[in-house]
Fold each of these.
Amino acid sequence: MLRRLLARWAFPALPIGFAVVFVVLPLALTIAVSFWTRVGLVVRPAFTFTSYEAFFAGARLLVFERSFLASIEATVLGLLLAYPIAYFLAFKVSPRAARTVLLLFTVPFLVNYIIRAFAWTWLLGRTGLINTLLMASGLTNEPLDWLLYSDVAVLIGLVTSYMPFMIFPLWLSLSGIDRRLIQASWMLGAPPARTFLRVTLPLSLPGVFAASIFAFVGCFGESAIPVIMGGVGYQMMGNSIASAMDVLNYPLAAAISTVVLAAMMSLLLVWYLAFDARAFLGMILRPGK
Amino acid sequence: MNSLSIWTRRDFVRIGLASAGAASAWAAIPGTARAAGGTVNFADIGVGDPGGDWSLFTKAANGWNVNLVAIGNAPSAILNVLVAGGGTASYDVINIVGGMQKPLVDNDLIEPLDTTRLPAWSRDRNIAEFLGKGTPGFNFIGYQDKLYGVPTVLQGDSFAFLPEKTGPLDSYAALFDPKFKGYVALEDNYTTAGQKTALYLKHANLAKIENPADMTPEELKTVVDFLVEQKRKGQFRVIWSSFQQAVDLIVNKEVYVIDCWEPMVFVAKSKGVNAVYADPKEGYLLWAMAAYLTKNPKRSAEATQAAYALLDFMLGGWYGAKITLLRGYMTNTDAPDYAKAHPDQFPAEGAEKVAAITANVHRKFAQGGTWQNRWPKHVDVYETEWARFKAA
């Protein structure tokens, strides 16, 4: 009996133990510290909302709102770009070609993300390649300032950084759709657009949501792109947390992190309630496989 | 019969006297490491590395080596390394921008220095001239009347400009001049950009600021309100936060006036850009790097002696000249003479460069300005106000 019980729990105990030690405990500690108090440079256990008050009353709330909006914009734009690519790879090319293209989408990640952001500044700057070409072609008389150190620049940086991450779950989800369902729609007389809207898109929604979560979470915590490509003092939540830590205000940094965590967990909860995770892998759609 | 039996009593006396003499001589050479083959662990922010060449130290310190580890310069990064990362056990010496004594001493992370163990200390005239007790510069190496840091680098910061775009400039007012609207960059740092702005506002009688180096919350609010107003008018193109970013801004002519460090101008010039580092009438933002001995009760006497030997080496001519050449900062008063006297190690052109940089920075210190304050009394207010400026 005991042996059977051990055999049953020994295997899952390893990942569960790992998650508890390396994920749950640090997060719990972060939440606890957010209520602690700071005396001089020392942090002492307490239960106070001082750090939350500082967050919600100060400029950091604006940063939170900006991060939220910028992340939504980048996620929506990323989806609009990634979905057609994933669709094309899943339905229009051979599996071998799809694998090759997917591999190519991983190439940018071989370059350090800070170098990638700097590369954008060289392209988008007043004397950069794009402005030079625009002026040389006569399309503009002077450089477009808003191409760099602006909200647009941050959006470009975020979309190009996180869009490739979105292609993979979308492709996975689209590839898992049973083709017979699409064929049945055609045979019943639905035009391609209607088949897409009524069959393909709904069945790929788990992938859409997974891709959105990947992109949104990444964008929300991004710290390098806003600093390198953003306008005067453009910050996102990662920068705000780092700034609080610079003066050793750990309770405030923990409070900001907790607010971010709560926002992310809410999104994950929506995903959990709205979709069965197995649908993401096509297991429900293709029973028996 | 063992081998000792062949020794006579006279041999023992002779060897004994010789050993005692050697020990006395050894003790009389302060700063010399007395045990061979160890390693001094040296944490540095990227300025104190003499190109990886520690051979002269090893030779002078009886075989001790240096293990250099790069760390960040932000106060939190340093304190995290020393507190959370167990850095006092991992590192013997940390070389960072000074003025951090309060948090370092209050957290029991560094030791007061015994300058009698540093023969080069009394030779470095910069210490007496700019960093002595009772002067604002003392805050970069001392705290509450005790000495904690060996000054390794000194510099005075202002701003850079492109003269073909702006003409000659000699005031921080250029950073806020509407003529350069959209072509100005500031550093993302309240102890540099914030303090320079305060210096300008004070000198231009635009705000009542007692001490730009340690402002009250009200004074700081005035400064940040001014910066927010400038930001909303579109005065600034960007706030930079890394060396490469600032260099790119100058080299690509993205901005014409930039609050920055002088070595960035050296790099821009090396790339063919005619950038000038300003000589502002309001004075400079003065600062110094300091090397601290970490507090580690378990460190052996030999390792402590070797750490002192390293601190003394860093006050020496070879190290100073090397760092001046590599980084463009003034180091110690031995550096120019050493470089000139050792053409085998420093070719004439290099020696001239060391002398020129040293003379230039010395002139800045003589002119004065405001000393950067890395840990102002109201540091939390500084951080919060700076966040307000950035979010505005």
Amino acid sequence: MKPIHEAALVLRDGELFEGEAIGAVPPGGISAGEVVFNTVMTGYQEVITDPSYAGQIITFTYPHIGNYGVNSIDRESRQPFCRGVIIRDPARRASNHRSEGEFSDYLVEKGISGIAGLDTRRLTRHIRDLGAMPGAFGTADEDLLRAAAIAEPGTDGFDLVATVTCDAPYTVESSGPRRIVAMDFGIKTSILTQLKRLGTIEVVPAGTTAAEIMSLDPDGVFLSNGPGDPEPLGHIRDTIDSLLGNVPIFGICLGHQLLAGTLGASTYKLPFGHHGGNQPVKRLSDGKVEITSQNHNFAVEADSLTNAELTHINLNDNTVQGLRSTTAPAFSVQYHPEAGPGPHDSRYLFDDFEQLMETFSTETLNA
Amino acid sequence: MPKRTDITSILVIGSGPIIIGQACEFDYSGTQACRVLREEGYRVVLANSNPATIMTDPDFADATYIEPLDVAVLEAIIIKEKPDALLPTLGGQTALNLAMDLEAAGILKAQGVELIGADATAIDTAENRETFKRAMIEIGLDVPLSGTAHNMDEADKIVEELGLPVIIRPAYILGGKGTGIAQTAEEFEAVASNGIDASPIGEILIEESILGWKEYELEVMRDHADNQVVVCSIENLDPMGVHTGDSITVAPAQTLSDVELQEMRDAAFAVMRRVGVETGGSNVQFAVDPETGRQVVIEMNPRVSRSSALASKATGFPIAKIAARLAVGYTLDEIPNDITRETPASFEPTLDYVVTKIPRWAFEKFPGTGNVLGTQMQSVGEAMAIGRTFPESLQKGLRSLELGRFGLNADPGEIAYEDTPLDELLLEADVPTPDRIFKLEACLRKGASVDEVHDATKVDPWFLDQMLRITEERLALEQLSTDTMTRRAWKRAKQHGFSDVQLAYLWSVPESEVRAARKAAAVHPTFKTVDTCGAEFEAETPYHYSTWEDTTEVKGSDRPKVMILGSGPNRIGQGIEFDYCCVHASFALADAGYETIMVNCNPETVSTDYDTSDRLYFEPLTHEDVSNIIEVEEPVGIIVSLGGQTPLKLAGELPSELIAGTSPTSIDLAEDRERWNALCESMAIPQPPGGTATTTEGALEIIGTIGYPALVRPSYVLGGRAMEIVYDDDGLRAAMEQLATFGSLGREGGLSAERPVLIDRFLEDATEVDVDAIRDHTGEVIIGAVMEHVEEAGVHSGDSACVIPPPYLTEKTITTLESYATRIATELGVKGLINVQFAVKGDDVFVIEANPRASRTVPFVAKATGVPLAKIAARVMMGATIEELRNEGLVRPPVTGHVSVKEAVLPFNRFPNADPLLGPEMRSTGEVMGIDATTGLAFTKSQMAAGGTLPEGGTIFMSLADRDKAMGIDAARRFVGLGFDIVATSGTADALDEEGISVVKRLSKVTDDGGQDAPGETAVDLIDADAIQLVINSPRGRGPRADGAYIRAAAGAKGIPLLTTGSAAVAASRGMEEWLARPLQVKSIQEYHAAGSSD
């Protein structure tokens, strides 16, 4: 048996959890970030590599993580951006024909530190009751961890997109007929995979201007998912504002919040967000229910929607999950139709995007 | 869309008697459905022949028909009740098949009844293997390659193409009956021809072998708006080749990546749409090739199943309840999630724990059958356990089985594998048997690597590595002791699922010392909640399991709490009857203002529905686990006498001041032979002579005074485990030998100074009678019922048909029986239920035994008399008086004016190598009830309900032991009078001739070696030629293959009704006389109860 390195997790409110250190050894024996929980039972590699977790420590509510190993396909970005993982019972040995390596080695290799063996249900209930909050874990002394937790600013009011967006534009080739510009706020690979069905994708950094985007002659612009608070991203809203009406737009997650913001809606922070693969969303056009993958802490204020109609709501708490501009060819959803991980119920939205681009180009031609 | 208003009444069909492959889970689903439909304002008409069910309680439907589940009977019910719709998807395969028959016969159409939940085309698409397969291929899903055959020529052609091994599955079957694997040409011939016979349409499917693949199941729900959700994924620990009902299964799936799981989810939804399950729950089974990940669809059930009961308990998502709502028009998003109350049912539960289900078998009851598991289900029950990790839930599950094992080895039971060398053990572990799981661990402990064990057995390496963690923990614990255990070490051991009994074994100290040391280290169990959502939302429903974490989620309460201990996994002798009693106790005590706490580990049951009690603990029924709950809940009383032997065995170890009702001392008094004998003597109540012995010598000594035949039985077991009638010294020695060894019986209690063997003179040709009674603390006694058995004393009461009111006992005898029962109850200081068994010979009444607890007959008596015995008993145990309950209206006079017959249902069709003879060891799995105006009519209905519909004409074969000849002659005369032909073997024919009863043909006898004593036809020949419609054959020899065994086996194989006692033959002949004189009539329990109580 491997030696055990006792470790602890301390939340900003002082709540203490005892466990053992796993994964990479962080500098000073401390990892800090905003502690959130995710309720998926499968798809841990996709979750860990999702750039939307920048600044956050992910608690997995399902105890056994790592059972089917890791591979080179189920990753959602070039590298993980999360601040750490909290796992009840990491697997020692993987079993799956797709596995290319053990989960524990992967954590070390990718520089992700973690804490295991603690009462993750107690932690989850704590966050559920008191909200997501900063915390610190590691092998360091409890006092140091406590200080780190207090010093950790969380995600509110920060531009985390800058930390995850690509440095330079790149192209994802496709045999599809269209050209899509995807604004990368922390785009997931699964989204690129779905968009590729529609056409070639020009992935551009978050700071790309509207003029630069239009110069690429896109059939449509995609606003990606990404981490953190949409509020400080005014410059991106300006870009979107310039694009609105000139090109069909489809947004997911942070992209949805930014589109809503551009249309004049406000956003707010949910107590502990939605992070999981079992969230029910109702499509208001026909009442159909989709089981969706979600990963967000911020949401669009329903009452603030102007120039847009509500298209989807979360049935658990009635939060806004989708909208469509009433003035421009643009729509967005808060959840993740690309799955990765999660159900495939909502992939039709990519077809809707294609339809929107088709209609727009026909209308433009006729005009 | 809200519920449908164009229908007002709905017929629900139950699943009938408990049989292997169809157990309590359909009482759970049916009860939920009836409740929900009534809540929605529909008039519910229920048909189910099983009186032990909770659903057939008169409170759960508007009209409850405890009538045979037969097309003609259902037609009569439909004509009488005129329901608008039939919901066939909640009563198992039985209900589904009946719905198909009603549809095919045009009855539904003629009577204007709409099938809801699934239509006939959908059922046919799912159930007919060839249609199903074609449908799957049509929608682009992968299936095992195969072909369909209706005869051996077709079969041979298919196997030529596929190559061996292949799997053979008959069409339209239940629980995998008739399914088999063929590795060789010889096996293929045998399995294929059996399969063609077993299928009601004479069709088999021959498939490429996917043995050793990984097996999965998804539980899916769909509403009429095509919203679909996966409630639960399940992964089998046993690879393909073992029926899923006989496999250890784990939820959620453990070794599928999200990519694969979503592919499977998409496929399951496609299956639902293609099959056409419009609303409701279904399960879809998949096999996955571990090398390539290739997924193939195996089968689907377009109805709720045993797996859906498991999935409901595993997730907190009540599939049957929601299926019922969907069937009447709701969509998933219109139905609230009961547990969170705020979120809708249109979501997919997420777990933050691991659930393990482990089956329990009864091979020891059926000598002559092997214990090898295969594609045909053989288990009789199952336990489920919840833990935060797989190792914890596996160990909890193993100790929940109550087989004398306390986890994954590390207990005295592990000695069985100690001397087997590793290479041999690896070979043994490749054969699926009930104890394979223990062998797997033993292999790992003997040094085999996970890969070696995987290569030998195909069990997935992840599961094996998790088992290896248990092994490693055990080896580490062996180096420690109660003195050296740190807080962290205690927590680690407990988190790995180690029980106190295991630790006591490893450290050679008493269990109490382990518990004390652990408490001294300040390590305490915690209770978490099953909440469907991984704690994302607040759970309103206190459905708990124990684990070893930081915090407990049990909420306080200011009401007095009563804890009810359930009966654990189903087994022969202890099943749904006791669940009925526990559930009724919970209802009655809740009505009386108590907070009720249910503890049980059987996922099939109504008791483990979180709706049943105020609090539910899904926990093993062991001293340690129950004590932990007592410490956290602090109940004012614990009910141990309604759940059968399981809780009763615990009573002695629990705080005696908390035991509600009859004291454990009184319970012991009834079991302690010496004191019991003295008690009977002091009351001048006659007993058959007998004594107790702990050795063979002692037993022989007793025989010296009482003589043969003698009844030999162990104390403290239910269901007549290893009970035997012995006729000579050899028989006695064999019986004692069996009891002394660590065999099946040793595991359940065994022979020891504290638990001696009881030896009594066996009274031949006596009538056996059961009396159920209740006594309160003031001394008032009410008699529940006096039940006269159809079979003579010597046949286990659980296997015998019995009748209320007693048809042949005299008034005087009945008075004596009631008086004896009352006096015994008083003398024992009973506070609650008591069951007393008597043997009546002429005018003499002998008491055989008394059990101051709920008996198997309690629900039957309640249905027959309208008196809710279990509810009354629960209240009396908590201190109410019968007088008080009479004022409340709970105690009322028994209804009269009709006759009720209970008949046992036996599983011999599952064990073709076991002799289908009745004896003192109970072997029935379930029971049915027939009610009608007279004994004959009620008996005839009971036979029909039990699957042995008596013929209305034709040929009867008779072969009777001498002691049965007098009754046989009476029966034969009546049958001949009804126009039947009799054929018989020479001895019986002579006896009939002498009485002037004509025998149309004399048959040769089958000899012990399977030959015959003279040329000419034998009964087996005639049975095989379908020339016999009823077999009456009572046993002579006692060897396993004595002559009649061949005849009985042949009758069993052909499904010809078989009577094995003279008294049953008489009852049948009288029944047919009345049946033929009067057309079929059906009447609901509510009508019987109303009519009977008005006079």
